Amino acid sequence: MPEHTLILTLSCDGVPGIIAAVTGEIAALGGNIAETAQFWDRGNNRFFLRVAFLAPEGLEPGAVERRLAPVVERFGMDADVVDPRRRPRIIVMVSRFDHALLHLLYQIRVGWLDADVAAIVSNHPDARSAAEHAGIPFHYWPVTPATKADVEARLLALVADSGAELVVLARYMQVLSADLAARLAGRAINIHHSFLPSFKGAKPYHQAHARGVKLIGATAHYVTSDLDEGPIIEQETERVSHAMGPEDFVAIGRDIESRVLGRAVKLHLERRVLLDGNKTVVFAM
């Protein structure tokens, strides 16, 4: 009989019997577990589980959730079941620097990222040609203090109308309001340069070069009302030296930002990231 994969993710207080109860119900439905990962955060006694299993043809997420309902209630679980055959839809936001956007579009085109881009949104017109080349709707919404609230309302409407489940800030150089960040909690990922020490404002790579840093890097994280301080999904650093110029730092930084954001989006879409307060639990690909 044909089979397909379903993915179950859950979190709850760490008590005995969770895995046995869940896998027992999966087996009763005729499911065959293909991949499992779990983590117990002993500090706050929180347990996290991701199970990918082969399901008989016709078994849909709703039926699995109904079967698991008594177990979910018994353990007080936050649980979700998805069918990865349904391609998730995302919205990508970008400003003038399009390297991270182009990397995402390429990884989608070659099949490494399994997603459809519902729209590209920008506060500058620069990315229009890339959107048109990819056949993706492009929305040019300039942001000023007077238009910011309207632009954010448009974005929320676009998310709802398109069915997008993730908003990706691919070097979108605008700070989201606290209200918008709250509305998109757990559904918006940002990428930013990260150095030790951290450099903010204009030309961060030039600032880093002037201070003689030896490592540069990037961080992908969920968006919160605290600027660049949301739960971290993925990071990467690369060694640099005094022999390099500021433009070398910029070039290396572009590559790192693109790779880190791509991996973070993939981890999220594959349901490998679970929120643990201000942190994340990330199950390896």
Task: Give the proportion of residues in helices.
Answer: 25-40%
Task: Give the CATH topology of the largest domain.
Answer: Rossmann fold
Intertermini distance: 28 Å
For the secondary structure, the number of strands is 13
User: How much of the residues is beta strand, in percent?
Assistant: 25-35%
- SS class: alpha/beta
Number of helices: 8
How many domain modules?
Answer: 2
- Could you tell me the mean pLDDT? 94
The CATH homologous superfamily of the largest domain is called Formyl transferase, N-terminal domain
Note down, in words, how this protein is organized:
Helix content is 34%, strand content 31%. It has 285 residues and is of the alpha/beta class. It folds into 2 domains: 3-82, Alpha-Beta Plaits; 89-282, Formyl transferase, N-terminal domain (Rossmann fold). The chain has a 7-stranded mixed β-sheet with strand order 7-6-5-8-9-10-11, with helices on both faces. Strands 2-3-1-4 form a 4-stranded antiparallel β-sheet, covered by helices on one side. A two-stranded antiparallel sheet has the order 12-13. α6 (178-183) links the parallel β8 and β9. The two termini are 28 Å apart.
In short:
By secondary structure, the protein is α/β, with parallel strands linked by helices. The chain is built from eight helices and 13 strands. The protein has a seven-stranded mixed beta sheet, sandwiched between helices. It has a four-stranded antiparallel beta sheet with strand order 2-3-1-4, covered by helices on one side.
